[in-house]
Amino acid sequence: MSWISDALTSSIGRKLSMSLTGLFLVSFLFVHLSGNFLLFKADNGDAFNLYSHFMSTAGIIRVLEIVLVAGFGLHIYTAIVLTRKNAAARPVEYVANGSNKKVTWFSKNMGLSGSIVLVFLLLHLQNFYWRYHNWDIPMVEIDGKEYKDMYFLVASVFKNEWWVNPVYLLGLLLLGFHLQHGFASAFNTLGLEHKKYSPIISRIGNLISVLIPLGFATMPLYFWLFN
Length: 227
Ligand code: HEM
What we know:
Blueprint: H1 2-9, H2 11-36, H3 46-57, H4 59-89, H5 105-108, H6 110-134, E1 139-142, E2 145-148, H7 150-160, H8 164-189, H9 197-226
Antiparallel strand pairs: 1-2
The structure holds protoporphyrin IX containing FE (HEM).
């Protein structure tokens, strides 16, 4: 079985693993964003609270959580290994010669944008995941049953702990840049080069990189500024 571990730890194997875990994490972002839009339903947060209760108690979600943590772990670990290998293989920085227009500041600094997104994520998990499971947050009654009021928690963090909002907005901005370059390099690595379809795929990637962070940004902005 050593050919499997050889393939996985080869440079192309690692790039493949970066791309596939990255695309998997984007699919999580889609699901997370769609569920969070329930925050805007005009029902005092009932639908969002039922959704949060399901996300925190359903067995299938516990299993998916392990897959998600593994996905994040592999993505970050592979990024560190690849960055170190690249640095060792190229101790002297390239001199920009203007011929490679695709090299932007963000494409060269995926590690930096990824690290800032990770800091945002740790703050975010403390804000909502940790508090939901470990704090005595208020209860709410829905159809005769008691649930933890996650809607209240989200609203009060964005409203009362206002300083988290700039951190969230910065994290989301960098998430956008990270996604934009990540999409481009994932499709490159997967070899999905096609004269007709590549420009379309690249445009869809750009659009998603703007829409996902913008969609999430509406949430802190809504509670901070309009509530
Ligand atoms: C800014 C708007 C966001 C809001 C209002 C929000 C809200 C929440 C809430 C309430 C939870 C607790 C569990 C749940 O109900 O699902 C949660 C968990 C989580 N969030 Fe977010 N989130 C936001 C953005 C993000 C972003 C941009 C990421 C990733 C970069 C992210 C990653 C996660 C992860 C990994 C979890 C734990 C896994 C889970 O329980 O589903 N969230 N979020």
